[in-house]
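Reviewers of the previous submission asked for a worked example of the structure-prediction workflow described in the proposal, so we include one complete record here. The input consisted solely of the amino acid sequence. No template or homolog information was supplied to the procedure at any stage.
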Amino acid sequence: MKRIVSGIKPTGSLTLGNYIGAIKQFVKLQKARENDEFFLFIADLHAITTRQIPHELRKRTLDIAAMYLACGLDKERTTLFIQSEIPQHAELGYILQSNVYMGELERMTQYKDKLESNDVSISSSLFTYPALMAADIILYDADYVPVGDDQKQHLELTRDIANRFNHYYSDFFTVPEPLIPEVGARIMDLQNPEKKMSKSENNPKGYITLFDDEKTITRKIKSAKTDSLGIIKYDPLEQKGLANLINIFASISDISINQIVDKYKNSDYKTFKEDLAKTLVDVLIPIQLKYQEIINSNELNEILDKGRSIASDYAFKKMRKCKRKIGLGRK
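From that input alone, the workflow returned the following structure tokens.
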């Protein structure tokens, strides 16, 4: 049996990109890997690398947990918990800062992007957070971590840190492998297909949240950027906007890109977008109804309490061994 570990940061409302690239893939993994166990956490400690409004952060944390369950997460096979409720994450994160170098952290894309934006309010935690991210994973001896294309850099650093620790202190942490979905790993902004879909972008037409109603979903898809060619084919270089919509269609309906293109090769963009919008509505509205059931019941707290208990027990034992191995404490 292998262990798969994943986390999601509660910054902003969950988008269609989060659903296709993370949530849906996690649910599919569970169905495909029936003999494996899954640890899934809400990474609220990572959220505070930038200033957050406390009550909004708590709400988003619970929203994400409830939405995962609404999307089909197998609660019997998943240890679902909140990162900050397990203090060993931060404890191991600090220890791993001693096993990662400044140069490695300076090469991390998120830090470099922030630096290039000339933002003078970069927190030290934004610089060191890859050590905490590594702790999130290796604390539970993850065999695999589901990642999108843009997250491979972080996992590679995690692997480097784990290998470095193992080399110096002898084998202790499992070195995780990536699990990268073939389709839907990177969903782009509907108005600017050069950028990843994110609620942090200023234009609300560029993203669809998992809480958008039918009219909003339809309107955003209809206004999505395409091109003037009027030909439905999959060309991520010359027709980036259309390629993004095809990718969304293929991912949300679980059929291949080639099948989508073949079906609409003689259609116009208007028909294609109308069908895509309807498909999204048919998928997302039932999820929203299930979410409302979960968020308004006590089931979520019961699941999170159970997850905290399981994760806490494992993390405590792992950290006790870790501290002993590196010489911390009296014995």
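Residues 3-185+298-326 form a domain with the Rossmann fold fold (CATH 3.40.50.620). We consider this example representative of the routine output the project will generate in years two and three.
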